[in-house]
Amino acid sequence: MSILQSAQRRYSAKHFDTTKKISPETLTELETIFQLSPSSINIQPWHVLVTGTETGKAKVAQGVQGFYRFNERKILDASHVMVLCVKEDLNVEHLQRLIDKEDTDGRYKTAEIKQRAAEVRQWFFDFHQQRQDLPAWAAHQVYLGLGQLLLAAADLGLDSLPIEGFDEDALSIALDLKSKKLKPLVIVALGYATEDDFNKHLPKSRFDLKDVFTEF
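Request: output the structure for the sequence above.
Response:
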């Protein structure tokens, strides 16, 4: 289907069919599409925890107890769940690993080009550190990946639900994220919606194009 058709198909699933599972091949394709997501200065500040097991999903569900319990079944019934995290240890070592990976992948024809790229990236990195908005800036990049992930899921015939309603501390404890220097930003439930999912049959509602865009 076209990108437009995938965007029109995509919606936030509320009920997942527990009998339908995402194939390993489809999951790998979805992960690869997320891997290819754009990010400012190619910083790639993300790490994603993925589970399709009942034990794994139960761990994620520990982050949606109490006030957030309304999200529990969505996580437990989904075929797979991803926890999109931002790295909290973005530093010179991360930048060096990044530049070396780009070099290995053949992005730099000369040492001078590589050095210049490293200097430019360091400038942008330092800029956000000085503005004291580095964590927020890094989180914005993860959300770029989220958008690509949701559209890709629809294109692959999957249903999805991004979940921001969770207890960050509880989820961090359940998945031992603090020791990994990761901050959870959004949970994504993935699978196949049931036919009686009420949200599946409702029309989309968005502001008109003239209210969203101004041509000049």
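The chain has a mean pLDDT of 97.
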